[in-house]
Amino acid sequence: MTSTTRNARLLDPGFELTLRPMRYPDFYERYRDAIRNTWTVEEVDLHSDVSDLAKLSHSEQHLIGRLVAFFATGDSIVANNLVLTLYKHINSPEARLYLSRQLFEEAVHVQFYLTLLDTYLPDPEDRAAAFAAVENIPSIREKAEFCFRWMDSVEKIDRLDSEADRRRFLLNLICFAACIEGLFFYGAFAYVYWFRSRGLLHGLATGTNWVFRDETMHMSFAFDVVDTVRKEEPDLFDDELQQQVTDMLREAVEAELQFARDLCGDGLPGMNTDSMRQYLECVADQRLTRLGFAPVYGSENPFSFMELQGVQELTNFFERRPSAYQVAVEGSVGFDEDF
């Protein structure tokens, strides 16, 4: 049913269709920014990566195999939640425009990772095993089960009529913004940029740069939705919700650390479980701070190549813009705060 009350709140049940007068113009501007940030998988050149893969040690090849196996399913899980939960309950046509665009971007990411697997794993059996990672790789299955718990908690709710339902929806949204896109994927990005810092796998790094830009925008939008709900319904943001979010992020850090142990084994030069723990704790604290909650770890980022990522990618982006992007981007983008 269409809502016709212009002072309705963002999570009020209904299906508002009227864009004028516009209740949430910032969401519409995010949609416009996303359109200007268009890229295609065909623009990513993976040819040089094939020779680089042959140079890697057995342990490094194991890391790459696990990493691309996670990529094979990660964005599909996010896309499903967009369709089944977020689009259904965020009652704003401006926001739904953005979510529609985000769904397209998740499809591009899935295509990129499909192309990546086809390039990196020429053996059909290896590719099949990577796509079945949720079933046969415990460290990836643990992360997927973490995602599914939050999806299942909201998926069957048709209307956010009660305060309890709205809290469940908020926890779903925060989980996907702060934990999955904001922690699981940022952990994966760190492995990619570790290889790039050593002059390896530039094709993977290029595609990841563009995925990284998209994911940063996805998080920013989701956090803006949380900010809007906080203004409209401040009573939802009590000590109980803060504790639930904090516990959620702690659980996400531990799941990602299990993945790190799988990838890193006894440790690689410049990359090991201890440094990844420190990095993940740093990122988790940043997500909590952005949500207006107290940080819990107090860790600093141990990866200098991640500190440089924001400035480096912004520079490379504008150098590449005429040939690498179909639509020019205007304005400025900051990334360093997200690490």
Structural class: mainly alpha
What's the CATH architecture name? Orthogonal Bundle
Specify the biggest β-sheet: none
* Total helical elements: 13
Could you give the distance between the termini? 41 Å
Roughly what fraction of the amino acids lie in strands? under 5%
Tell me the Rg in angstroms.
20 Å
* Total of domains: 1
**Shape verdict:** globular
Q: Class, according to the CATH hierarchy?
A: Mainly Alpha
What is the residue-mean pLDDT, rounded to a whole number?
A: 88
Q: Look up the CATH topology.
A: Ribonucleotide Reductase, subunit A
**Model regions low in confidence, pLDDT < 50 over at least 5 residues:** 311-337
How many individual β-strands?
A: 0
Helix content: over 70%
Order of helices and strands: HHHHHHHHHHHHH
The CATH homologous superfamily is called Ribonucleotide Reductase, subunit A
Which SSEs are present, and which pair or pack?
Elements: H1 25-36, H2 47-55, H3 58-89, H4 93-120, H5 124-131, H6 133-136, H7 138-155, H8 163-197, H9 202-232, H10 239-264, H11 273-290, H12 304-307, H13 309-324
Description:
This protein is mostly helical. It has one domain (53-325): Ribonucleotide Reductase, subunit A (Orthogonal Bundle). Helices cover 71% and strands 0% of the residues. The chain contains 13 helices and no strands. It has helices spanning 25-36, 47-55, 58-89, 93-120, 124-131, 133-136, 138-155, 163-197, 202-232, 239-264, 273-290, 304-307, 309-324. Helix 3 packs antiparallel against helix 4 (93-120) and helix 8 packs antiparallel against helix 9. The termini are far apart. Keywords: Deoxyribonucleotide synthesis, Iron, Membrane, Metal-binding, Oxidoreductase, Transmembrane, Transmembrane helix. Tetramer of two alpha and two beta subunits. The chain crosses the membrane at residues 169-194.
